[in-house]
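Q&A log
Question type: sequence-to-structure
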Amino acid sequence: MSESPPAFDDVDPPWGSLATEKYLLQRWNPDSSESPDQQRKRLIREYIKAGPERPALIASSSTEGPTAAQISSILEPWRTLDQREIARAGSIATVWLRTCYSEGTDEKHDEIVENIDMQLAVDGEDQLLNDPDLYDFGANWQQVFDVLPELLEPQEGNWDVMKESQRQAMEALVAFAEGGVSRAPSDLLKNLSSYQGKELEDAVADFLQSEAHAAQVHGFMVLEDEEALNSGRPILIFLDVLGRVVRSQRVENGDEANIMGSWEMCSWHEISQWEDAELGEDYKIGGACEGLLLEKLKQT
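Response status: OK
Response body:
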């Protein structure tokens, strides 16, 4: 016999206490012609799109808790209590997301994860999103943000630190684009003192380009899609706060096993899984973030 859901007052964190829930309650239109699911999805995508402006969107929201009617009609149908538990930190460094559940793939999934320590890979078993009723997204894996937009929050909600890192990285890249090696950071040149000429220029360019892209990253995801289940090679995806792919790489099973350690030590942008990864479409020439490319900066 299944357990009854907890009473509204027994839920932890309390209903309406999460930033995304406050936003939904504040913007909800009970007279909307949209279905509740459509309205939730639209509002959450608007919230995500706001990026660094998100805190201001809810700063003036009511401190009163939601009514029972609001909980039952707006919040409770949105996501499960387990998903709320994942979201409660306000920002999630990572998850392991399985998006394919076709016949015969359970055994393949088990083979992929049997030797993976989820604590070392994605910070715990709770971060493994493996449920056909919730995550059968197929190729549309970014739909996970509709129920877990907290995946797109900066660590500890610190937007100012993130923006300052981006500013510094961009300033260094622009200076190099305008003045070459002579305007590269002195500490970087000291570390590359064994390089000369074109080799030095290329090394500086690679480093500054990598740092400019790394400053956009706030989290990562291990994606177990259909190809991963067939090949045994999940995709390691580095994400920006709008859910765009900064870089990604399909890795050999096991290469993602210790990524969490390098993430916590802030050395993830020095590992091959980052350095050798392919740029996401938005970060290539012609993409929304092409302005971060040294190639583009040199053309202006």
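Response note: The beta strands are 94-98, 128-129, 219-224, 235-239, 245-250, 278-279.
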